[in-house]
Every structure is written in C-alpha cells, then in structure tokens.
Amino acid sequence: MGWLHVITTSFLVLEYGLKLVAIGTVPENRRPSSSSAWLLLILFVPFVGFPLYWLIGSPYVRGRRHVIQAEANQRLIEHTGHLPSIPPGAEPSPALESVLRMARRLTALPCITGVDEGLFGDTGEAYAAMTAAVSSAQHYVHVEFYIMAWDDTTDSFFTALAEAAGRGVAVRLLMDHLGSRKYPGWRHFRRRWTESGIEWHLMMPISPLRGQWRRPDLRNHRKLLVVDGETAFVGSHNMIDPAYGSAKNARIGRRWKDLTIKVSGNIVLSVEAVFATDWYTETGEQLDPRQHFVRKPELVPGGTANAMQLIPSGPGFPSESNLRIFTSLVHLAVEKVSITSPYFVPDESLLAAITTAAYRGVRVELFVGKEADQFLVGHAQRSYYRALLEAGVHIHLYPAPAVLHAKYLTIDDSVAAIGSSNMDFRSFTLDYEVMLPAFGGDLVVRLQANDTKYRAVAHQLSLAEWRRQPRYQRYLDNVCRLTSAVM
C-alpha cells in the first residue's frame, strides 16, 4: 500500500508540474484562441492533451524544411532584389502599395505582371485547358497537386503527361502523400507514372519503415501547374473526378465546385519558384535557373494584363503571410468585400476585420456551401454566422449537394486574390498554400462576374432564420469551433 501511495503521489506531482509548465509555454507565439483550446485539453484531459501537444502542438516545421525555406527566400531576394516593389505602369493606392511591400517582405516575391488567360469554373474545361497546355510542352512540365487520382475524368491529363515524357519532355510531379493515398488506384497510377517516364515524388511523405516521418497534420495543399515557364495554372482544383472517387457522391449528385486561373507572363516565374522550392525540399535537386527562370519584359497593367504578386504560405512561413494579406486587404475596403471559401473558420483578427468592415458600411458578402464535406469544420464555420449576420454580412449558401470549393476574394473594384487557401486555421498555419493577388487589370471584374453566377443560385441566410436554429445545433457548432483552434 505504501508503494501505491508513493506512485500515486508521484503521478499527481508530475501531472500538476506539467500543467504548470504548459500554462507558461503553450501561449508562446500562439493566438489566444489556440492557446485556450490547447490549455483546456491539457488541463482537463491531460493523458490526451500532453501526447497530442507533443505530436502536433507546434504549427511550424523545424529542421531541414525550415532551413530550406529560409535558403529559398534568401536566393529569391538575391535574384529579385533589383526589381521594384511595384512594376512600371501599375498604380496601386498608397494603402494597397503598403500591403504589397509587406507581402514582399514576408515571402521574398515581388509584385510583377502577368496575363489573365482565363478562369475555369467547370472541372471538365479546367482539365481540358491543362491537358492542352501539357500537349504543347516542348521542354518541361511541373505538376503539383494536393490530391491526384488517375480516373476517367483525369485520364486525358495524365495521358498527355505520359506522352510528353515519351517525347523527351521533362515531367516532374509532386503530390501530397496523405492527400492522395486514400483514393482508388493509388498504387496502380504511381506505377503507370514510373513506366511512362514521369519523375514523381510524394510531398510530406509518411513511411516510418523507410525512415520517412512527417507530422501528419502538416500537409502541402497547393495546386499548380507550370508548362515551359510560359504558362501556369493556380487555383482550387485537385486532379481528381469532381465526385472525388465516391460512388455515393456520384449517386446523390455531390460534386466539388472549383475555380482555377490560367496565367502567362513573368508571374509564371513566381509559380515556378514555389514549385522549385517544394521540389528541392522533397528531392534535393536544384532546378537550373538558366532554364527555369528566364525573365520576360514587364507589361503595362490594363485589360488582361494585371499586376500580380504570388503569396506562398504554410508551416515554413511563421509570419502567416496569407492571413496577414487577407486581413490587410479587408481593412482597405471602402465599398464592398466578397469572400468565397469552402471552409470559413477565421481567427480573431480576420473576423474583426470582416465585421468591422460591415459595421463601417462596407457591403460584405460571404459565399459558402450550404453543406460542408467535413463535419468538424462545417460545424465550426456555422458558429460564426450569428456574429457575421449581426454585423450585416450577407451570407450566401451555395446549394447542396454541391460542395463549393472555390477560394477567392475581391476588395472594392481594385484588387482580387485567387488560389488554394481556405480561410481557416489549417490554411493559415498548417497547410502549404498559394494565393495570387492581382490589380490593375481585368481579374477583379471577372471574379465579380463569377460572384453573380454563385449569387443567382445561392440562398441568402437571414439573421431571423439563423436565430431559429435549435439549441443542440448551436451547442454542437460551438464545440466544433473550440476543436478547430487546437493546433
């Protein structure tokens, strides 16, 4: 009995000692909501909280990946340091110019020019455009997607990649390990890639038996394609059938609704730089800058020519560059803000910026899906609706069973951004993302026209309607909101 008492006392001392340590260490460099969620978990369920915090508590990568990102940023500074912060002919407002300077400081990528070659909201049209670009490749194709599957819908794209490799084009392909492995044909299509001569690698691989271990919660969520340094695609499409390989989704008509942009001009070099960094991180191979980073004359913004500044973000960017850009842009608005995001779980700063804009008389519109495909995020998102509606935000629910998966925003008639980043905690901190802000050309108007299409089919949620939600739903929403901050 004496030994049992000693052991029990020792465990109690250890538990409370660790709790005291957690109180002073968990909040360091962490937003208050995340600190509170982690501390609640650790204090009330220590046998779950402590191991989980040890495994995924830090939102940033360490070691080799952190060093590589720092080296990449330094090389970008060396190669682009002579370029102006704003391309000649672009005329941003002083406030917007300050945001662009911040973006360059956070990411090392300058604002340059690019041509809007088209928006693709239809998945078939997006894949057809990508396939055509690959079919015209003469030197190289760089492919990077969070999810890939060789199915009936993507067959033409992957066949074009195989044919390009067969005619001597260098085809390099990256896909996220956990993002892709759960879909049908995982082993088969990797073998087909190898047999076709495609050089492919997994991003953030998890294979302990091969000495490969990455935190499972840190993923590469980027979606991009570069062909010969002349053309690039950036957006929300994954390379998979829009029903995501699910017979149930196909049966009930659930399809993912995405939006991707095709660009040309010098902005392609920025997309190339992001791919080159990710490729080097996973393979150790440095791409030859003489072949992959050949600058072109800058354009004067106007029409399809836009001033553009690619924003990479993720665990390698502790400054949370995408969140700072989103928040800063919303603060610039004087007339209207439009946000489209499948997963809308803002942090305190972004929520304050959005509601403050609405209170100051800015028309703020939020486009989200009526039904989310992820339980926790879907309910966490709903927990913000009351505060948004009370501030005067117009919430448009895209009809189910479709899953609205596009990710973009517009500010007044002056600036827009499109890419892979959701407006949630994962995309701010845990996932590698890219967003493409643009101004001075036609992209803002084109994205606003896309809003019109969504608005025509969406249901606008009213505050009175939301107040009729049952109490158990509100309780569930709030519980899920708390778990979303644990990172």
In short:
This protein is α/β, with parallel strands linked by helices and 487 residues long. It contains 20 helices and 19 strands.
Question: What are the salient characteristics of this protein?
Answer:
20 helices, 19 strands, Endonuclease, Chain A, alpha/beta, 487 residues, 17-stranded mixed beta sheet, two-stranded parallel sheet
Describe the structure.
- By secondary structure, the chain is α/β, with parallel strands linked by helices.
- The chain folds into 3 domains: 2-56; 63-100 and 108-311, 2-Layer Sandwich (Endonuclease, Chain A), CATH 3.30.870.10; 321-484, Endonuclease Chain A (Endonuclease, Chain A, 2-Layer Sandwich).
- 46% of the residues lie in helices and 19% in strands.
- It is built from 20 helices and 19 strands.
- It has helices spanning 2-25, 32-44, 46-56, 63-80, 94-107, 123-135, 155-166, 177-180, 186-196, 247-252, 267-283, 289-292, 321-332, 348-359, 375-382, 385-391, 425-430, 443-457, 463-467, 471-484; strands at residues 112-120, 140-145, 170-176, 199-203, 219-220, 223-227, 231-235, 256-257, 260-264, 305-308, 311-313, 336-340, 363-369, 394-398, 403-404, 408-411, 415-419, 431-439, 459-461.
- The strands form 2 sheets. It has a 17-stranded mixed β-sheet that branches. A two-stranded parallel sheet has the order 8-15.
- The longest helix is centred in the N-terminal third of the chain and has 24 residues, at 2-25.
- The model has no long low-confidence stretch (mean pLDDT 88).
